[in-house]
Amino acid sequence: MSIPISDQTLQSFIDESLAAEHAAQIEQRLRSDPALVARLAQLLGERDAGVHTLGEIWRRHRLTCPTREQLGSYLLGGLMTEQREYIEFHLQRVSCRYCHANLADLQSSSTESPSTVVIRRQRYFQSSIGSLPKNKKK
Questions:
Q1: Residue 23 vs residue 16, higher pLDDT
Q2: Model-level pTM?
């Protein structure tokens, strides 16, 4: 007999905010459980119809997640104790995949060589040539 999956857990699955192992377990269950698929479809339908709970709004807008700037300050060791402890709790206990991805991106960008950064900026600039409107003189 399998353990029941709550609607809140399914919402977290939809939001991709579960730990990877837990999300994989739910995905496996979805492949063999038509009733669970129906519940997931119902939750998606309610979400699309605008039915929201306060908890869902908090999760969807990631109101408990630290900002990218706060994560950068965390990496640099520039936060007050309370902020640092909250971010550590969020990363370790909540295991927010979104914040872990942001943190990994910040860590990888901090180790890039200056020449790599210059090349990337040049590519961004070149890819946007012609995309911006030209200034029209009046």
A1: 23
A2: 0.54
